[in-house]
């Protein structure tokens, strides 16, 4: 029935509302469902810590656990420069490597839904620490010098190609202690632990960290 044209108008209006809702539901659903299905405390996480503390392994597992993308800054540098880290150190020197490293850190700030694994020396530059801390929680992984030695002795880490690597590990750990402490939202030990155990501890602490951020200024859990 025409009903002075009112019925059609109402009908059109209703259809539009229904259609708008359908469109809205479709747009929202892809992103929102993912967010709702994966209950995670944060969507940008960085891992820092000395060589051999397990950043790559734990970072990968953490990214799977929270449905995030895993990014290893050393791997990005190798891919972009088409060189191995050791060769960059050898042909261009450590200073050039550190420049690349800062540039990659800067670029990770624009990303979201990621776990970033940084190199062991990344946090030595105050500007890198500030950049990382400004974007999200930085988790510092730790391990004893002996564990670090055992985990790195067969690798080609340029800084550990010395006569006495264990001594070098002690020395570097001492020089870097303050920087790791400054950047850390919290520390997690990977010594003699199963990786899944470490990942669960990280997730628990991330929830606490997130709660703390919601209640107060950014800082460390420790
Ligand atoms: C370095 C650590 C390495 C790599 C480079 C320098 C460092 O990364 O970035 O060899 O200064 O501690 P990993 O911590 O992943 O081994």
Fill in the keyword field for this structure.
222 residues; binds shikimate-3-phosphate; 5 strands; Rossmann fold; 5-stranded parallel sheet; alpha/beta; 60% helix; 9 helices; single chain
The CATH superfamily is P-loop containing nucleotide triphosphate hydrolases
Please identify, by name, the CATH architecture.
3-Layer(aba) Sandwich
Measured on Cα atoms, how large is the radius of gyration?
24 Å
Q: How much helical structure, as a percent, in the residues?
A: 55-70%
- The number of helical runs is 9
Question: What summary fits the major beta sheet?
Answer: 5 strands, parallel
Could you spell the SSE succession in H and E letters?
Answer: HEHEHHHEHEHHEH
- What is the CATH topology assignment? Rossmann fold
How many strands appear in the DSSP assignment? 5
Low-confidence stretches: none
Q: Major sheet: order of its strands?
A: 2-3-1-4-5
Tell me the distance between the termini.
72 Å
The rough form would be described as: globular
The percentage of residues in β strands lies in: 5-15%
Q: Briefly, what CATH class?
A: Alpha Beta
Number of domains: 1
Average pLDDT, all residues: 89
Bound molecules: shikimate-3-phosphate
- Output the structural class: alpha/beta
């Amino acid at each position: 029935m025409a009903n002075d044209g009112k019925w059609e108008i109402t009908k059109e209006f209703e259809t539009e509302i229904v259609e708008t809702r359908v469109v809205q539901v479709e747009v929202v659903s892809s992103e929102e469902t993912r967010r709702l299905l994966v209950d995670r405390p944060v969507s940008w996480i960085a891992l820092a810590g000395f060589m051999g503390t397990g950043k790559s392994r734990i970072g990968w597992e953490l990214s799977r656990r929270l449905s995030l993308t895993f990014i290893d800054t050393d791997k990005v540098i190798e891919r972009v420069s088409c060189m191995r880290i050791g060769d960059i150190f050898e042909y261009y020197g450590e200073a050039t490597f550190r420049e690349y490293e800062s540039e990659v850190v800067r670029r990770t700030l624009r990303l979201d839904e990621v776990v970033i694994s940084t190199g062991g020396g990344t946090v030595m530059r105050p500007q890198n620490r500030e950049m990382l801390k400004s974007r999200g929680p930085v988790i510092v992984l730790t391990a004893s010098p002996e564990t670090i030695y055992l985990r790195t002795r067969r690798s080609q880490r340029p800084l550990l190609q010395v006569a006495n690597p264990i001594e070098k590990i002690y020395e570097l750990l001492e020089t870097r202690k303050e920087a790791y402490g400054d950047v850390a939202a919290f520390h997690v030990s990977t010594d003699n632990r199963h990786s899944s155990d470490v990942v669960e501890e990280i997730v628990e602490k991330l929830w606490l960290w997130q709660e703390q951020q919601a209640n107060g200024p950014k800082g460390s859990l420790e």
